[in-house]
Amino acid sequence: MNRFYKKYRTVGNYINTLLLLSVLLPLLALSYFNHPSPADDYCYIDTVFKYSWLEAMNFYYSGWTGRYFGIFLNHSNPLLFHSITGFKVIPVVLFTGLLFALYNLFRHLTPTLSRIAHLGFAGVIFFLYILKMASIVEGFYWMASFVTYTVPNIFTLLWVAVVLDWYRQDTKKPLLAILANFFVFAIIGSSETNLLIILLLIAALWFYKLVFHKKIDGLMVSLLIVAAVSSYIFFTAPGNQARLDGNPLSRNIVFSVVSSFKKLALLSFDWTFKTPLLIFSLAWVIVLSKISVGARKYFSMPVWFAVLLYIGVLSAQIFPSYYGIGIEPSARALNCVYLFFLIGWFYVVGVIFHYLHQRYTGQFPLSFLRYGVLYSLLVISIAFSFFRSSNVKMIYTDLLKGKAAAFSRETEERYALIQNSKDPIVYLPPIRTRPLSLYFDDITVNRDHWWNKCMAGYFGKEAIIMVDKHE
After folding, report:
1. For residue range 258-311, what is the model confidence (pLDDT) as tens digits?
2. Could you give the CA distance from residue 259 to residue 52 in angstroms, rounded to a whole number?
3. What is the DSSP secondary structure assignment for residue 464, as one 8-state letter?
4. Which of 107, 140, 142, 155 has the smallest set of CB atoms within 10 Å of its CB?
5. At a CB cut-off of 8 Å and minimum separation 6, what does 300 contact?
6. Distance between CA atoms of residues 225 and 269, nearest Å
7. By C-alpha distance, which of 74, 143, 80 is closest to 458?
8. In whole angstroms, what is the distance from residue 332 CA to residue 145 CA?
């Protein structure tokens, strides 16, 4: 039986790695064709050039949003250094950071497994994430979006690993505490969605330590203080009022709570039954069954607590959109929900398995035939989901059919037109090739549109206007 399992694990690890590469490689290749978007990317740096770096950040904090860390990152984007190449490099950093954070998390949760197994787990999560994420461009390529969602998502996963490290060490390392508190500060300052996630996780840590361990330690206190100070900075920003006043349904708590749970139920059904998630969950249970009880200590918590925290984290991410502006969450917010749906799903499955296994200690009676059936189901469901995924079709089509290259070429031609023009008003052709994996928005025929004004200001022109000569 162990022989079959070892073969299953070895082959399974390589399959998981191949799944990772099947979506990661085209995404990395697409990064080469990425460019700053006229939607916001130029606006931040245009403001810096006009008013100075600090004053520009104060302008956004005072007039639009309390996302102080997101403001800092956006006003430090590569355009500050007149670099287009930076927008090709940053997505690669994001992919690397997310994969490392996932790998590192699984390394802490299942320390007795091999590094290739941890990489395989990270690969499965990443593969499932790309299959159904709401918007790839908003997740990895449009900077104004990914600094407020993808970056704090990575920081949240790293925070969990750092906190686990802190409590695992007999001798406490101050650097771990500093890192944990920095992540809290940065996460809270990135977006309302991530603010709620980290506050719930800190509250869960306090509840768990107080109720089940009857203790309070220095890290818990410091996290609470930093979270309180960071939240104060966030919520007292004068710019928050501008957003809250934008819709009559904003700040309606009952409407927001009900809408959040309805939306979560619909999304969960789609993510559970229209992906290979259930088959991967079965494979995960088999892996867990071969891990000793002592090595599963991080799954040793009450099932009710894990499930409530899971539902709370997911619904809390949807709530701000309904409460703040009275509409459904944006695609970039749904990206965030889906990532934590996947991670939380596998963790909760682990908690439930650990609970049941303590009461039923028998081994899973899987023969060679049953392993073969599991492999077959995995391969069929993976293949079906892979070829049916609109995201997979999109990234491969944009890359292999030259849409990404054409988009990059047209964008570079517009740079040349701007730089070679001696006139204060520049007329640009529209971007005709619009790969959905990279393209988010463009300037308009209206010279007073915000995107037009920002782009013109950045390039030192009086106005930049889009004109379609083919009309």
Report:
1. 888 899 999 999 999 999 999 899 889 888 888 888 778 899 999 999 999 999
2. 42
3. E
4. 107
5. 351, 354
6. 38
7. 80
8. 7
Tell me the CA distances in angstroms from 454 to 48, 451, 464, one per residue in order. 11, 5, 9
Task: For residue 77, give the amino acid letter.
Answer: N
Residues 129, 133, 135, 141, Cα dihedral to 10°:
-10
DSSP 213-253: S----HHHHHHHHHHHHHHHHHHT-TTHHHHHTT-TTTT-H
SS3 of 324-336: the string is: HHCCCCCHHHHHH
Distances from the Cα of 171 to the Cα of 166, 167, 234, 390, angstroms: 9, 9, 34, 49
In this predicted structure, what is the pLDDT of residue 249? Answer: 53
Q: How many other C-beta atoms lie within 10 A of the C-beta of residue 268? A: 16
Cα 227 from Cα 225, distance rounded (Å): 5
Cβ atoms within 10 Å, residue 206: 15
Cβ distance 213 to 47 under 8 Å?
no
Task: List Cβ neighbours of 381 (8 Å cut-off, separation of 6 or more).
Answer: 276, 279
pLDDT at 1: 44
DSSP, collapsed to helix, strand or coil, labels residue 447 as: coil
Q: Against a cut of 0.90, is the pTM above it?
A: yes
319 neighbors 327 (Cβ within 8 angstroms): no
164: left (phi over 0), alpha (psi -120 to 50) or beta: alpha
Block residue for tokens 């690669």: 92
255 three-state secondary structure: helix
Q: What pLDDT is recorded for position 72? A: 96
> How many residues are present in the chain?
471
Q: Which two tokens stand for residue 264?
A: 């979560």
Spans of the chain below 50 pLDDT? 1, 4
Q: What is the full DSSP assignment across 362-379?
A: PPP---HHHHHHHHHHHH
Say what the pLDDT of residue 8 is.
54
Residue type, 257: V
In this structure, how many other beta carbons lie within 10 angstroms of the beta carbon of residue 399? 21
What contacts 123, CB < 8 A, 6 or more positions away? 16, 17, 19, 20, 21, 99
Coil, helix or strand at residue 44: helix
